[in-house]
Each structure stands twice: as C-alpha cells, then as structure tokens.
Design brief:
The chain is α+β, with helices and mostly antiparallel strands and 68 residues long. It contains one helix and four strands; from the N terminus they run E-E-E-E-H. It has a four-stranded antiparallel β-sheet with strand order 1-2-3-4, with helices on one face. The longest helix has 19 residues. It starts with a strand and ends in an 11-residue tail after the last helix. The mean pLDDT is 84.
Length: 68
C-alpha cells in the first residue's frame, strides 16, 4: 500500500488477532515496524508514523528581513 508517497505493508501475524505493519521512511530508509490487534489499527498506526516523519522534514518558514 502507499500513503503520501511512502510504501508500507500490513500483514496478519501468525497469532490470531495480530497485525504487523512495516514502512520505509526517512532519508536513510528506516524500517518502522508496528503491531496492532486489528488491521484498521495497524493501518492508522503506520500512517501516523509516516505523518510524523514527513512533518519533521518540513523546513521552517524564514521571513525576509525588513530593509532599512
């Protein structure tokens, strides 16, 4: 699956009721792995992780200096 240009996967674990999520994030590709009780919770968790990484990448707004 893909969210905001980042690929991720959500798969059912071996045990019943366990879903695992993996995403490739950041400049040096970091693998983020999570676990949840439902598929929907796993998707929400991995999408939130993607949002956090993308938010950190945003550059601060620099206002121009007033001319004297």
């Amino acid at each position: 699956m893909e969210y905001r240009g980042v690929e991720y996967t959500v798969v059912q674990g071996i045990e019943r009721g366990i879903w695992k999520s993996t995403a490739l994030l950041g400049e040096p590709k970091i693998i983020k792995v999570g676990q949840a009780k439902t598929k929907r919770d796993a998707v929400v968790a991995v999408e939130c992780a993607i949002e956090k990484v993308l938010a950190r990448k945003k550059l601060p707004i620099v206002l121009p200096r007033p001319s004297d």
